[in-house]
């Protein structure tokens, strides 16, 4: 079975799941698609393995002993941006919002089809790899945007016209941050800490900057960007 990923070393997936049967099934399906796996049966073990092995992605169960999925996800986000897909038996909007707010890249509700889980893993890995390669090039290309990280210049393509955006430093930082992971939802707190680190601004200040950014994009023919996610924050593109 083809993995659908670019050629290279097999990605390593950390399966953080206390149900051994579910973990074995996920490992088997991942192996069929050319993915390596390592298993953690509790939250603390998951954090230890993440630190030592630096997996490419984490499949993270919400209800685990020693440290639950929310605690693990919060710590992973303090460490960096390793992609995380939450596995939850709680099909409730509050749990989905919790995962998005803390920084999950996707979530799957149990009982799930293992093949679908692997498909989601591959999709998130592709997005992460593209973002990493783009970051290395120092130019973010997310149509209709082209953002030069060295020149601090943002260009938007609208029809046959290219517009160089006249942005404040904060507006530029917000646009660049969202463009690094265009389908990920960033909470207001995340945008506040990464894009307005110098002051003691309130989270609602982010809304003001995003509103001004939207108006400038609308003047260039791009509407509805960034996209707001109620109760969570913003992302650049719709899923």
Query: Distance N terminus to C terminus?
Result: 26 Å
Helix content: 40-55%
The Cα radius of gyration reads 19 Å
At the fold tier of CATH, the topology name of the largest domain is Rossmann fold
Q: Which structural class matches the secondary elements?
A: alpha/beta
What does this protein structure show overall?
- Helix content is 44%, strand content 21%.
- By secondary structure, it is an alpha/beta fold.
- The protein folds into 2 domains: 118 residues, Response regulator (Rossmann fold); 98 residues, Winged helix-like DNA-binding domain superfamily/Winged helix DNA-binding domain (Arc Repressor Mutant, subunit A), CATH 1.10.10.10.
- A hairpin with a 2-residue loop joins strand 8 and strand 9.
- It is elongated.
- The N terminus is likely disordered.
Quick summary:
The protein is of the alpha/beta class and 239 residues long.
Task: Offer a few descriptive terms.
alpha/beta; 239 residues; 5-stranded parallel β-sheet; Rossmann fold; elongated; Arc Repressor Mutant, subunit A; 8 helices
Topology:
Layout: E1 12-16, H1 20-32, E2 36-40, H2 43-53, E3 57-61, H3 69-79, E4 84-88, H4 93-102, E5 106-109, H5 114-137, E6 139-142, E7 145-148, E8 153-158, E9 161-164, H6 169-180, E10 186-187, H7 188-195, H8 203-219, E11 227-229, E12 233-235
Parallel strand pairs: 1-2, 1-3, 3-4, 4-5
Antiparallel strand pairs: 6-7, 7-8, 8-9, 10-12, 11-12
